[in-house]
Amino acid sequence: MVRHVSSAVPDEVHQSLLPRVQETGRSLEETAPDCLTLALRSPKAGEHLRRWTGAWASGVPDASIRHDDYLGEALSEDLKDRRDD
Fold it and tell me: From residue 79, how far is each of 23, 73, 82, 84 by CA, in Å?
């Protein structure tokens, strides 16, 4: 099963992904999950990921619990806006 995740990342992380994107010729959206998978398989994965825990605030206190609801609402609004055009 594939899960879709939308996430904002610090500029430092984005810049770190760009060379990999150029190497593979794949999009950032395709490359980022591959890099995350490799990082999680690393023996030091816990240390690397803990560093980013709480690194930025979403402003939505229940985002980690209701993320599917919020994504569904955003998609619904986006599709509604496209139908109105």
Answer: 34, 10, 5, 9
